[in-house]
Amino acid sequence: MNPIIEVDAKALVEGAKNVLLKNRIGEFTKPAPDLYPHQWNWDAGFIALGYAHFDMDQAESELRHLFSGQWRNGLLPHIVFNTSADDHYFPGSPFWETWRSFDAPSDVKTSGISNPPVHGFVLQRMYQVASDKGRALNFVKEMFPRIKDMHAYFYNERDPYDEGLVYIRHPWESGNDNSPTWDTPLEKIDFSKIKIPPYTRKDLDTGHVDHRPTHHDYDRYIYLIDIFRKGDYREDSIFKLTPFAIQDPLFNTILIRSNQAMIALGGIIGEDVKQFKEWNVKAIAAMNQKLWNPGTGMYDAYDMINNQRILMEASSGLMPLFGGIPDSEQAERMVEVLTSSAFSGNPEQPNYLCPSFTTLSPKFDPKKYWRGPVWINMNWMLYHGLRQYGYHELAEQIKSESLELLSHYGFYEYFDPERYIVNEHNQGYGSRQFSWSASLCLDWLS
Ligand code: 9WN
Fold first, then answer.
1. Comparing C-alpha atoms, which of 289, 280, 219, 218 is closest to residue 252?
2. CB of 5 within 8 A of CB of 408?
3. Residue range 277-325, pLDDT digits in tens
4. Nearest to 80 by CA among 57, 35, 56, 110
5. Residues designated as active site
6. Which of 30, 313, 227, 262 is nearest to 145 (CA)?
7. What is the rounded average pLDDT of the residues 336-352?
8. Is 217 in the pocket of ligand 1 (CB under 6 A)?
9. CA 55, CA 143: separation in Å to the nearest integer?
10. Which residues touch 432 (CB under 8 Å, ≥6 apart)?
11. Is 15 touching ligand 1 by the criterion CB < 6 Å?
12. What's the pLDDT tens digit per position in 13-38?
């Protein structure tokens, strides 16, 4: 599809830098001005990547600040709290009760779950774009052991049967919070005997109720946090108590892609990378044996509590392209899925790529968060995945459609994939001035 909208690259770059600078509060940058007042884990990775193109001090500072919240067992929390804004977001730091864990830092307030581990490939990209390679190498040396500890935490603590695949124990860990992928395991929880701790949401003060997760979702999110608190954040105790432990193809892909980055970076700084190679050989084999679905041409998720495959209909089932996980035949199948009506629409009514959920499902909702809208970080990963397999034209389409959305509607958090008549509808939703939308735009245009 030819772009309908002219993209002014210079204006986009300036606009993107402004978003980052406005969301910056000292050592780190908030994901968005109001909705998200703290530092988020995978956001910080994508944000660092954008800064690397114009302010390497701040790019490094983002990762340093994030890793200041790393736990002694290697867990990198999904939020490092800005305690002066604790009242502006729920759940704030007190709710997590991370003092129950021997591993949580006492001087930095954090959540007790993690996020997709993007930091390995972010560090590699920062090194690639750096003009001062000596300085970049020092930073790689500084971050290498911390990222290794985080990967070791996942493989040691989140892979109880030694399969090579790690599980997430909260939908927020996936980053794709209310994806319909989690509906089935969450619906299996019998809430008739469960008492959920009282809570008040804050996200609806600024976020639109039709675009944010439902109260039904939030009850489940809060219930899971209560389990972690009851398990004192000990992974072995939590695994016995939790009704939610999922091997997610997106999360594992990102870990694999970061392992690859660490292998390359370790080679440059003379670090032993044997462990990363072993993790990856096992992980890639497990992705293909356990999660690949030849019937659908996507990678499924696996519910470890109910011992069930979750049929994947979200775009995260296509993301293994980014990790170089499928062979060329599998990749071809995945591209067929991406270009089919499920994601691309039809010639009369094409979609903006890439909807986060198949548009053919009754669960598809073009405006609701991870249940259909286009997300820029997912597009960025898909773009790089497609290029790796030689699908340059499709990759360029994803990039140009992303830039078109950003250029016309602004740096929104997510976008409606259905094309309306331009100017008549706003296609951007969630928070305006969203940092990773700006940051990845900068990376594309650099
Ligand atoms: C919960 C910050 C984060 C992103 C997630 C996105 C959203 C939080 C929320 O915002 O999640 O972690 O309150 O909805 O789903 O991917 O990291 O931008």
1. 280
2. yes
3. 999 999 999 999 999 999 999 999 999 999 999 999 999 999 999 999 9
4. 110
5. 177, 413
6. 262
7. 95
8. no
9. 18
10. 32, 33, 410, 411, 412, 413
11. no
12. 999 999 999 999 999 999 999 999 99
